[in-house]
Amino acid sequence: MTTGFGAISNLLSDVMTWAARTLPFWLALLICVAPVSAVAQDNDLEPGDAILGTWLSGAEGKELARVLIYKDDGRDKGQDGGLDSRRVNRKYFGKIVWLEYPEFRDDDEQGMAGMTKVDRENRDPKLRGHPILGLVILKNFDFEPDRKWPWTGGTVYDPENGKTYRGRMRLEKDGGLRMRGYVGIPLFGRSTWWTRSLP
């Protein structure tokens, strides 16, 4: 007759034997499923998302800055930090995440030498005290793959003069990003080239 303790002991022994025999199977399954899961997540990306990431900008004669391009499926956050009332779906935005010179230089003509750079040229006086770092300068770009400039319909803000331009973007063969800002028609605009950068 098997005692209660002996029965439990035999049951535990059987469970341990089963686990030892099936462990390789479960490990193999885990190894196979993990990459599939990762690929599935990557497949969630859309063609227009090729532009996402951090870019080093810097037109000739201008200071370097890094701009993070991201997609916002919700409501656009204005420069004042508030939420616009209108909805924007699957639009592309860009904000400044790094500055070569985060403070105004020693020879600053407005007497702000050494102070953190703010959006002092903004046309709206209420926004002139907001830091440049974190400022959203690209807004509401759509992706239209059949166009020569696939990312279009958005605006580009230049904190150096406080002006907002219509904008369009495209990826070049070398992996760079060509940005064009203009007023009226693209013919009378200016292009700059951005390069991929580490975050």
TL;DR of this structure?
With 199 residues, the protein is of the alpha+beta class. It is built from one helix and eight strands, in the order H-E-E-E-E-E-E-E-E.
Essential attributes:
eight-stranded antiparallel barrel; 8 strands; 199 residues; 2 domains; alpha+beta
What does this entry look like structurally?
The chain has 199 residues and is of the alpha+beta class. It has 2 domains: 1-44; 47-196, Lipocalin (Beta Barrel). It is 20% helix and 31% strand. The chain has one helix at residues 4-42, and strands at residues 53-57, 65-72, 91-99, 136-143, 151-158, 163-171, 177-182, 189-196. An 8-stranded antiparallel barrel has the order 1-2-3-4-5-6-7-8. The longest helix has 39 residues, at 4-42. The model is unreliable at 25-42 and 79-88 (pLDDT under 50).
> Quick one: CATH class of the largest domain?
Mainly Beta
Distance separating the two termini = 70 Å
Instruction: Write the element-wise H/E pattern from the N-terminal end onward.
Output: HEEEEEEEE
Mean pLDDT: 79
The major pleated sheet works out as:
8 strands, antiparallel, barrel
Oligomeric state: single chain
Strand order of the largest sheet: 1-2-3-4-5-6-7-8
CATH architecture of the largest domain: Beta Barrel
Strand content: 25-35%
